[in-house]
Amino acid sequence: MRSIIKTPLAVLAATTMLSGMAMADGHGLTGDLRIFSDMSNPAPRAIMEGLVEEFGELHPGLEIELTVVDREAWKTQIRNALTANPPDVVNWYAANRMGPYVDAGLFMDITDMWDAGDFAGLESVRGAMTIDDRQWGVPYTYYQWGIYYREDIFNELGLSEPTTFEEEIANCQVIVDSGRSCYTIGSRYLWTAGGWFDYLNMRTNGFDFHMELARGEVAWTDERVRETFANWRRLIDMGAFIDDHQTYSWQEALPFFVNGEATAYLMGNFVVPHLREAGLSDDQIDFYQFPAIVEGMPMGEDAPTDTFHIPSGAQNVAAAQEFLRFVTSADVQARINGPDGLGQLPVNANAEVADDEFIQQGFEMLSQNATGGIAQFFDRDWPAEMASIGMEGLQEFMVFPDNLDDILERLEDARQRIYE
Amino acid sequence: MTPATDTRSWLQKNRMTVTPLLFLLPGLLFFVVYVISPIFQSFNISLYDWDGLGEATYIGLDNYRELVDDRAFETSLWNNLKWLALYLLAIPAGLFIALFLNQTVTGIRLYKSLFFFPFVLSQVVVGLVFSWFYLPRVGLLNAVLTFFGLDSINVLGDPDLATYGIIAAGLWPQTAYCMILYLTGLNAVDPEQIEAGRLDGAKGWKMLWHVVLPQLKPATFIAFVVTIIGALRSFDLISIMTNGGPFGSTRVLSFMMFEQALSEYGFRMGYGSAIAVVLFLIMLVFIGYFLWQMWRDERAARH
User: Fold this and answer.
1) What is the DSSP letter of B150?
2) Is residue A414 domain-resident?
3) How far apart are CA A101 and CA A136, in angstroms?
4) Could you tell me which of A282, A171, A329 has the C-alpha nearest to residue A235?
5) What local confidence, expressed as pLDDT, does residue A27 receive?
6) Residue A286 and residue A157 share a domain
């Protein structure tokens, strides 16, 4: 326990000196620190409570009050929380999802902390926290997306991990011929279809084009967008996806994978604990990066990032800033993202990555083969309104691919209205 | 003898007026604060472009202009009409179940409570049960269909069927509600009139139409009111069963309003309010009719 505390303290001492803050040491913090967190699932909740306890031990003068809000409910409650009697620290998401709160001046600009080097090791994720060239918070965890597949069925059919789209399709044909579906997906809540679009578009047109589309700089009726949908359609027409996916949530789509009726799932790494709990061993599941469609195009990846922010109405800013430094320090990062914790990737480059097959593969992929760039996710990179209309169109396309023209025109109308 | 001067205070003199007013005051206060003023607030907000956080910009009737061209709004409006029309089936269905149960057989109380049961269930539970019933591969409906050699259907995944699927789920508890209204109504039916009708040779449909139904008019009226309001408030079932999907085909106005203004991706308070105003105006037509109807009945009762 002692050694665990020692390191962040040393880091803290160093960072406070660097930033030249008024506080001489980390012990001088007093008053109340109110934290609103959306880490309501059992494992994240335990992590958050542990963090608060530890932070309290480091700063005995602080009275820390932690409020954990249901993760889904928080998505709408944050508005009230930030406007009426705001707490000192809140959870949220990176990239465009911060937009409404940044625009409304509800998140505190902490660019000076980033500039002062308070968050050493976080340089690579700084972009995700940036809007208008300023930084509005810090990340605390992120996770890779990619194709999780049934290794045992691949072996049985004599298939190997594909690296190109043609191989992917050849594999899929074998799988379909064996009476299975290639991919399970539950598109009832729409966002899962967003993941497919993200990857197909980043692979067909590249990361930069993908981001231009997200920023509303390209028309949805653009020929390049149609090309993405044409690639998608190849999969749909060969029966790659399970039937009736519009009726299932992403969890309800899991049994198809677990029972071997579908052999792969394009998903975030949070799917792994569910697969293990359902009785699949690590010999039965494996992971590969979404294959290249255009040869030589740098790979872009989805890696959604969860974050901490200081509301601009925070009362105890000094303590809140200290908490952000604490939660992003290499040591804390390694622990909270470890296999006993969130089971995800630490945001601090100096933190140790957990010894887990999937976390390791994800880390390798994102640090070595994501040279195109790192995206957040369809519903975080696109403005909220465009994302919701867009994902509805994507779901419709998956069920009725013939409606594509109509869908694209609708999205284009929405784009022209929303971005103005 | 000196004339008696009225020594009572103002309050004592007027207590017949003051007392009811005092009793009404708290209720009225809450009604004004929580019902009347939000209605006017919605009218006001619907003229602004506002994300609920920052500055609101006045844009006049632009939100309403956008509504006219919004296909999602058109779908929602049509769905609301489907709800209104089909939900009314609960009234005749409730009536016939009530007539069927209005007899003295051993254990009739048990049967009545079984029929009443769905109304006791929360809408959320009804929605869940029905979405399991409709499940594409393992649902009971498709098990029955495939047993009879028919093709299985994905009711909630088919944009043409989904709304009807949800309305069917809604009819289950609503029928029970109408049934209970009619059962109480039937208790009040005058046996002498039935007897007289029978002497005059009325039976079956004639008896029902000319003798029983007129006496059930108050029950029919209430059933009509609660069913119309229930149809317009159809939010929870949609949220549970399809979440407005597939691709927005089961939205109704109330759900669309929630999505636009209050959901995860909703930041358009002005647009949401405009939808709320339209929904309010639709409801106003019915509310106006109900009030007029009640006023007319009361006047007839007094004369």
Assistant:
1) P
2) yes
3) 10
4) A171
5) 53
6) yes
Domain, as residue range, for A292: 145-302+364-419
Number of domains into which chain A is organized: 2
DSSP secondary structure string for all residues of A275-335 = HHHTT--TTTEEEEPPPBSSTTPPPEEE--EEEEE-BTT-S-HHHHHHHHHHHHSHHHHHH
The verdict on A168 and A278 lying in the same domain is yes
Cα–Cα distances in angstroms (integers) from residue A410 to residues A347, A404, A419, B249, in the given order: 38, 10, 14, 15
Name the B residues in 94-133 with CB < 8 Å from any A CB. none
Nearest to A228 by CA among A204, A253, A262, A246: A204
Positive/negative CA dihedral, B243, B246, B250, B255: positive
Contact between chains at A76 and B264 (C-beta distance less than 8 A)? yes
pLDDT band at residue B224 using 50, 70 and 90 as cut-offs: very high
ipTM: 0.84
**Better-predicted residue by pLDDT, B108 or A179:** A179
- Whether pLDDT at A13 is above 70: no
CA atoms in the 13 A half-sphere facing the CB of B255: 26
The four Cα atoms A413, B245, A395, A196 give a dihedral, to 10 degrees, of 110
Residue A400 has pLDDT above 90, yes or no: yes
Listing from the earlier edge strand, what are the strands of the sheet with A285-288? A181-183, A262-268, A145-150, A285-288
pLDDT digits (tens, 9 = 90+) for B38-93: 999 999 999 999 888 778 899 999 999 999 989 899 999 999 999 999 999 999 99
Contacts of B267 in chain A (CB under 8 A): 100, 384-385
For residue A83, the distance in angstroms to the closest alpha carbon of chain B comes to: 8
Among A83, A103, A385, whose Cβ lies nearest the Cβ of B265? A385
Residues A286 and A394 occupy one common structural domain:
yes
Distance from C-alpha of A202 to C-alpha of A195, rounded to nearest angstrom: 11
pTM of the model: 0.85
CA distance to A78, A314, B294, per residue, from A83 (Å): 9, 11, 45
Write out pLDDT tens, residues B232-290. 888 999 999 998 879 889 999 999 999 998 888 877 899 999 999 999 999 899 889 98
